[in-house]
Design goal:
Strands 9, 10, 11, 12, 13 and 14 form a 6-stranded mixed sheet that branches. The protein has a 5-stranded mixed sheet with strand order 3-4-1-2-5, with helices on both faces. It has a 3-stranded antiparallel sheet with strand order 6-7-8, with no helix packed on it. The chain is an alpha+beta fold and 307 residues long. The chain folds into 3 domains: 133 residues, Nucleoside Triphosphate Pyrophosphohydrolase (Alpha-Beta Complex), CATH 3.90.79; 32 residues; 134 residues, Nucleoside Triphosphate Pyrophosphohydrolase (Alpha-Beta Complex). It has 6 helices and 14 strands.
Length: 307
């Protein structure tokens, strides 16, 4: 059975220890502890050790000397009680001339997350979402003044009007429409040839995630379904920039398709046997998202359901 706790980017999370976020003295002391674990990011890319199958480069308190004054985020405490932090290095941080030259490389998040250990992936995913949120929310939405990062990176506060701003997660319905022994998959024009996936769309104010799934399914592919038929599969944090992908399977009313070409290039129905070959990488013309993406697991969950 698919379990959200085992989903890539969500597996093996640390204790967020939220009660520590307002204790500035404790945070400063924790950052200087010998057992502190500190990951580094630049432009949304994690700093990882060399090699294809690698993990994050975990620094200790010496990380403060790598880039003085860089924003810090307190992620929590690991199972041994060690404090875990993330540092966001400047966009123009020059690795080759830095103190960590030769220790690793900044790697595209998707490429890195596909191979690093589960806890590393979860921490890096969280840090990426939070740091990108700070970069795009530097000014108070109430009065326009520049706000400041507070509470260990988990809030921004406006010094002028006092307004508080918190990171947001955008819920996204990602769904597989099914009927009889077939499932609907689609592709966007920008994707590599042959790549197909589940359909997806953001949940709008005033609707449930099931209603969003049914609405998006009809808007993108012209396929009607009853939101009440939606079966929840699992969810996954997705830091592009900060979404929660909620996976569903819905029963379609018919096989009729009417694609909105502004949203999709094409959509098609595939049999259960075809889906198995797609996931295994043996289909002659179609390939699926990798196991790092929840779409892969939704498609797999359907193939394993009894007919």
């Amino acid at each position: 059975m698919t379990n959200s706790n085992d989903m890539p980017l969500a597996a093996r999370p640390i204790d967020r220890a939220a009660h520590r976020r307002t204790d500035e003295a404790w945070l400063e002391g924790a950052f200087q502890r010998d057992d502190a674990l500190i990951l580094m990011m630049r432009n949304g890319e994690p700093f990882v050790s060399p090699g294809r199958d690698s993990g994050l480069v975990w620094m200790g308190p010496e990380a403060a000397r790598v880039s003085a004054g860089s924003p810090r985020l307190f992620l929590g405490e690991d199972s041994a009680g060690a404090p875990v932090f993330a540092m966001n290095l400047p966009d123009r941080f020059d690795l080759d001339s830095s103190l960590i030259a030769g220790a690793g490389e900044f790697r595209d998040f998707r490429a890195a997350a596909a191979v690093i250990p589960p806890m590393d992936a979860n921490c890096a995913s969280t840090a990426r979402s939070i740091f990108l949120w700070h970069e795009s929310h530097r000014f108070c939405s109430k009065c326009g003044s520049q706000s400041a990062m507070v509470e260990a990176g988990w809030k921004r506060q406006c010094p002028t009007c006092g307004a508080e701003h918190f990171p947001r997660t955008d819920p996204v319905a990602i769904m597989l429409a099914v009927k009889d022994d077939r499932a609907l998959i689609g592709r966007q024009k920008m994707w590599p040839p042959g790549f197909h996936s589940c359909l997806a769309g953001f949940c709008e104010p005033g609707e449930t995630i099931e209603q969003a799934a049914a609405r998006e399914l009809f808007e993108e592919a012209g396929v009607k379904s009853d939101a009440a038929s939606a079966e929840y599969i699992a969810c996954q944090p997705w830091p592009f920039p900060s979404s929660l992908m909620v996976g569903l399977i819905l029963e379609a009313e018919s096989f009729d398709i009417s694609v909105d070409t502004k949203e999709l290039e094409s959509a098609r129905w595939v049999t259960r046997e075809e889906m198995v070959s797609i996931l295994e990488g043996t289909h002659e013309s179609i390939f699926a998202p990798p196991p790092m993406a929840i779409a892969h697991h939704i498609m797999k969950a359907w193939t394993e359901k009894s007919v």
